[in-house]
Write the structure tokens for this entry.
Amino acid sequence: MKHFGTDGIRKIANTELTPEFVYAIAKAGAYVLTRHVKEGNKPKIIIGRDTRISGTLIESALTAGFLSSGADVELVGVVPTPAIAYITKKSNADMSVVISASHNTFEYNGIKFFSNKGTKIDDEIEKEIEEAIDSGIAMKKQINHDQIGVSSIRQDLVDDYFNFVVNIFKEDIKRYNTEDFIIGVDTANGATYEIAEKIFKELGIKYKIINNAPDGININQNCGSTHLEQLRQYVIDNKLSMGIAYDGDGDRCLTVNEKGEEVNGDIIIAIIAEYLKKNNKLQKNKIVATVMSNMGLNKYAENNGLQLVQTKVGDRYVLEEMLKDGGNLGGEQSGHIILSDFNLTGDGIVTSLMVIKILLESRKKFSELCSIITIYPQELINVKVKEFDIDKYPEVTQTIQVVEKELSGEGRILIRKSGTEPLIRVMIEGKDKSYIKNAAQNIAKVIEKNMS
């Protein structure tokens, strides 16, 4: 699609994602929404955001667009994406919007629409909104002055999410918590910077926290789930039990063990799957992941009698599969983990608390829990390109074919277009770390030479 990627609309704020364009997006969103809301109802739309400096600018433009289309708006302020998903469903809103560019640096921002079920809107609704933007039909639609919407500040709604999360875990955390269990938390100077700490305090979890002083510019800046180096060292230096890192909008979570070793989404999924299966709570003995999941997760599933279903990249496609064919556990290597018994979107805080609960109950070190799965070496390189049709370039396709032949079934290559940036992602995995690194670099150079 022209405007929407795999996770909403995401562009550089105030140059590509201008107030005028945001206003048009809101008008189009409200126009499409009113076609799906029961006639006679005045739509209610909730808006939340992360800590980016451009957040209030975009919030204002969205609000103006929605109000001028006759929708009422409730402003929640800075809040994690999964909180908005939960609040939308609980408060019977017709739709919600999260203003965030997730893991990207501060100059980017984005707009993610959620349905009244607390799920990201599907591709067909996104297409309708795109058509309404490009045709200008929504901008032409005028309402009477007595039908204009009104906005209200509803930061109190965040308490609903806080209570929801605390009530899931409070009994088990209280039962199994120990004095020597201390975690490190990196909130990426993002949307979780206040509420995560508040939840850990309420649950009685001892913690040390870093990167929780957002200034509008430092979100994801060498911190959070995409930059684990600082947290890894922090865990080692402070002899902590584990470390937790969220991304800018709090819908993903990665962890490190007590040795400072990264524990990615595939390992987290395996740990949770093992726990749920042991307690007869893993629906259909099934895991849903994406094509980016490590071969080690496939092997873990095979060896433990579990079904692994893989989808396109994007947590929305993971959820679609879970809802379509059953299953209560799914996610991505990047740390989007969906525990659908609790929330219908990736939820970094819930994921981290689930891992803490499992770890405390096990009475083991985190590194011991991680040993249930063997992760294959994997090399991922991003290449900036001008266009994405690899088949037009014989040198690129031939280079890929050579590597595929050399892997001989002991690894795989995945070449895909980024859904959020002008990049092609080159991923190779296999048993020989040195080989896959060199092969990935070689393919990336050939792509760059031909397509940049």
User: Anything to note?
Assistant: The chain has 15 helices and 19 strands.
